[in-house]
Amino acid sequence: MFHIFQYQPLRLIAQSSLSSMCLKLMLSRPVAFAQIWKSWFSSHSLLGKKNIILMGPPGAGKTTTGRIVGQKLNCPVIDIDDDVLETTWNMSVSEKLQDVGNEEFLEEEGKALLKFSASGSVISLTGSNPMHAAGMQHIKKNGIVVYLDVPTAVIMSRLKSKGTDRIVGLSPGVSLKDVLQFRKQFYKRWFDIRVLCGGDVAAEVVAEKVLDAVKRYQDSELETFISTRSSRSGRSTKEDSHKLYFSDVVTQGLALDGGLFVPERGLPKFTAEEWQGLIEATYIERAQVVLERCIHPADIPASKLAEIIETSYGENFSCSKVAPVRHLAGNQFLLELFHGPTASFKDFALQLVPHLFAYCIPRSCNYLILVATSGDTGSAVLDGFSRLHDTDKQRIAVVNFFPEDGVSPIQKSQMIGCQKENAWSVGVKSDFDFCQTAIKQIFTNSDFTGFLTVEYGTALAAANSINWARLLPQIVYHASAYLDLVHQGIISFGSPVDICIPTGNFGNMLAAFYAKMMGIPIRKCICASNENNVLTDFIRTGVYDLRGRKLISSFSPAVDILKSSNLERYLHLIANEDGQLVTQLFNQLENQGHFQLQRNLLEKLQQDFVAGWCSDEDCLAAIHSVYSTTGYILDTHTAVAKVVADRLQDRTCPIIISSTAHYSKFAPAILRALRIAEINQNPLSQLHLLSSYSALPPIHWGLLETLKKTGNGDHQVCAADMSVLMSHIETLIQNHFM
Fold first, then answer.
1. Sign of CA dihedral 78, 79, 83, 84
2. In this structure, how many other beta carbons lie within 10 angstroms of the beta carbon of residue 330?
3. How far is Cα 196 from Cα 278, in angstroms, rounded to an integer?
4. pTM of the predicted model as reported, rounded to 2 decimal places
5. Which CATH number applies to 44-218?
6. How confident is the model at residue 407, as a pLDDT?
7. What is the CATH code of the structural domain delimited by 319-340+470-710?
8. Helix 534-541 vs helix 599-608: crossing angle, to nearest 10
9. Domain Threonine synthase N-terminal spans what residues (predicted)?
């Protein structure tokens, strides 16, 4: 077995004379001693007996980076190629490959790795080591595997400049690019930490990134969450007893003080080089990179997160690009967010969140997810949680509350059709704001939640956009849209774009702003409202005023909202995390129906957002106009954003309009916009009529299948009364979990 015993004598010599050396230095130069001791303690506490194992394709810079990291940590450095393989074989690696061929080489390389052991070292693997499962399992037992993720085009350029013409897997008919792409699956399987390495990043910078990433990996204490209503000095008193991590906020949903969870140290930031390294990446690859940086591996390891993302965005989306960007006209582009199973942007979060939730919750408790929806969330959350593994469905169920008369007929049919053995819909004789407020009150009713836990062993959780995990996947598609424009040659990286989003609860809008904070060059975030334009008024005046306002039913029901929950997260951010101020504002809104921002906060708000609104008449006119000129049918929410974008953009840069739902979901309004005189009231007949237009995009496959299955499906309906809602919840728990 290969050991690193050759390093021990030097270490023993250093240890034997350490005391006298330290004493002399401490007495003569106390400041220098303190600095050296701090450096020694930092490096040894970082590494301990674990190894830092650098992995990546040939040409990733593993050897050079390993040497620099080793120097910084003052620890042994081992290059598997030079120090293990060539020593074991008594020949160069290229000679061995030529001598035995690809398959035998991998086996011999793996055997050498199985005989190798080390501790407290920096180890640089070969590019092909990860292809031998047993060897990697052996070396990973005592190490943290760091994946140096370099874009394939950069690797090919580096190998070409070095004149490298022989690597494992390269053969006639198999290109270098094919080999590198094939290997990625093995790198993704084994790594604990990913470090993005652009083409022009110096090895010294990469080494610092490695050290920072290892520190983050070893210290989950850095990534805690606080409530938007906690004081500046820390958490709210109700949450003072323990720290909250990602897995906690996923399951808890709403903070105990009624606030929303946000990361205590803010969101991670990507450099321009890191974003540029994702230009050639697929949507799934981009999602994994972004979410790895937002979710600590102590909560969800990178390998498990990759599995969840692949499951969520693989076969469940009808478009291979997942969230494609389509040119509409002029400088306007559509971000199509409706290719998921339930035909709206909510699928991006709600195909992913159920799997995150199932991984994070303790096995000893059952969970009932409560959801309030103004339309699209309902079917998306029902579909998402119904796709869990059978064992998870036995302990996780979801109930969806929606305004019985406040969604489109197709949306209602879809919510009824998406009901499964662990997923139910309940219509409420009120509006969305009542449903959302009721759920918030239920979560903060400790007597009721405590009763459910004690009596039935069941905890409540939220899957609305108030849940932090719902926001993260939305950040991904805003970032991806920008990268797609760069990839298509529309812009170069660094050039600004505007984004226009139909918004009611402010979650999608906030996610775009978060993408901007993380380094995507978004210039203006444009909020588009319908006639329920409380957000537009607020952004223009700083006054959030619900007095005398009643919810207006519109052709864009998903934004028929007066209380924008996620606005609280944004205000907490611009108020320098002043939870007391946020508490004051939202208590005033709850009790008096209004609040007004201070002038300095209004100025910040107006630097970040502009806003406009659109009438139903203008919405339908936009749908007709766009179809007449392009053959493309917008849904009613996208049409609202299109109208507002036309009014507010200055045409000096591209604008990305979020197409948040498929037009099929709003067939009556679409048929009216297309000036069809007689409209059959049957949702399925409406879709068949729309399909006869052969428009772009075609009728949504998943929606059509769901409506075919629905028939005259049943659902429960209840009064707008808190006690009635709580009774429904208790009955559902009894029926499913008992």
1. positive
2. 11
3. 9
4. 0.89
5. 3.40.50.300
6. 84
7. 3.40.50.1100
8. 120
9. 235-313
